[in-house]
């Protein structure tokens, strides 16, 4: 779960300060994406036993007020569900980040050139990673061949 | 008036069938792709292409085999019947669609011809065992590209030639040759004829499958697969991934996620890929023969029904 939280943290750093998420909010949002929907009681019973009822309720209420959750009355409580899927939220966050980048400078070409630079750098990193994988596989094949157990191609 | 009415009815039916089937294909192709995407890339590519041109094929066959004969054989020539507004509008739309397709394909062909002529002017032939001419160009981009429909050839930049090892170069050339052998550029031209809104994703999926099919055809061992993967990586760094020319098949092109998917696939390559093409071919032949026989037996009745339907359309 931890890497996912890290990813969420990175994701939400670019959101406006008013809608930034705390660690607990991130955890509940993640859990609601997993479960589809839940009440405060269900969250407490399943995975947040150490937390007070009011803490969970307040946190979900905050997420609802930030527009990230929807809620329907269920008896005397509310059932909460994510308003957006993970992909939709990522798209919204990415769009917001891009808008911020483009609005950051009066000369629109400057942030765009940064964006191109970042993309180029990212592509180069991806190609480096792929080259490393190819080299690794070559080494594996060579060592397997030297042991006589290598994967045999049609030409073998 | 008789001929005009016949043309209007034919175009109307063509338009109705073509548009209805195209919309249906736009709606269902993702589900279809989910069913077939685990199959060998070559088959996926063929099936997606078949699905893409399915509306054109069915509309053309319906019009040529049923609408035109039923009109010519069963429509009384002496009666002066006016053409209704709906068939007239549909007929004109069908004609416009046809003209748009021809213009679209013509423009793509002209762009491709100009690019090929530009490359050919400065190209030097390279001795190669490939079944198509291989020409070296001095410019860096495109690094390697299969071009041409009538006279297919492979262009290779001197830059790419110096970067790739002999085995990588051979694997990359095999990839381009596979594109030419499968007539992928001709298929791209055909898609220009049948442009339809909403088909872009299906065409992108087909394009991805053709690249993977050419990868599969280019390699016959895990070592060759790694050579091709290494060539892809090296040329991706040099060729700008956006350098796409109409009706050609470049070794590397955008998006980089496609290069990523291809390289990962090549790293995991094994020779377990069977060729299930023949397994189902007899079923296909059987189905076609049965359909033709059924139509042959009931053809005259079918023509009568078709004529009744077109009469309703004209009114």
SSE topology sketch:
The complex is a heterodimer of chains A (156) and B (315).
Chain A: H1 2-13, H2 23-35, E1 38-39, H3 40-46, H4 53-65, E2 69-74, E3 77-82, H5 86-103, H6 109-147
Antiparallel strand pairs in A: 1-3, 2-3
Helix pairs in contact in A: 2-4, 3-4
Chain B: H1 2-36, H2 41-74, H3 85-121, E1 124-126, E2 134-137, E3 144-147, E4 153-157, H4 158-163, H5 166-181, H6 184-193, H7 200-218, H8 222-238, E5 248-250, H9 256-267, H10 277-297, H11 299-314
Parallel strand pairs in B: 2-4
Antiparallel strand pairs in B: 1-2, 3-4, 3-5
Helix pairs in contact in B: 1-2, 1-3, 2-7, 2-11, 3-6, 5-7, 5-8, 7-9, 8-9
Helix content of chain A: 55-70%
With helices defined by DSSP (H or I, 4 residues minimum), what is the helix count of chain B?
11
Q: Number of domains in the coordinates of chain A?
A: 2
| Average pLDDT level of chain B | 86
CATH superfamily of the largest domain in chain A: Winged helix-like DNA-binding domain superfamily/Winged helix DNA-binding domain
| DSSP helical segment count of chain A | 6
Global mean pLDDT of chain A? 77
DSSP strand tally of chain B: 5
The number of domains of chain B: 1
Rounded to an integer, what's the Rg of chain A over CA atoms?
A: 23 Å
Residue windows where pLDDT falls under 50 for at least 5 positions of chain B: none
Q: Strands of the biggest beta sheet of chain B: in what spatial order? A: 1-2-4-3-5
Strand order of the largest sheet of chain A: 1-3-2
CATH class of the largest domain in chain A: Mainly Alpha
Largest sheet of chain B: 5 strands, mixed
Principal-axes shape call of chain A: flat
First-last Cα distance of chain B: 15 Å
